[in-house]
Amino acid sequence: MTPVSISEENRIWIDRFRRLGLGSFTPMLLDVLRPIGFLGSQVMIMAAPLLTTFTDPAKLESLTALLEDPDRLRQISQIMAQETDR
User: Is the pTM of this model over 0.85?
Assistant: First the structure.
């Protein structure tokens, strides 16, 4: 199998999912989020003034960008699925 080039932003999200203990559930979670990701990102943008009181604005922006990009969600899902298959 050829090694996949992983962007730094995707690597950060993979590490976050692992720290949250979602390693084996991440592929399923991202597959469910992919069709509604854009809608979710728009809700997060509208709720940003409230959400930034609880979390770092940069992390919120990063999550919004992740949800807006179904290709990134697919790539992270595939990487996490490969890692759990090992």
Answer: no
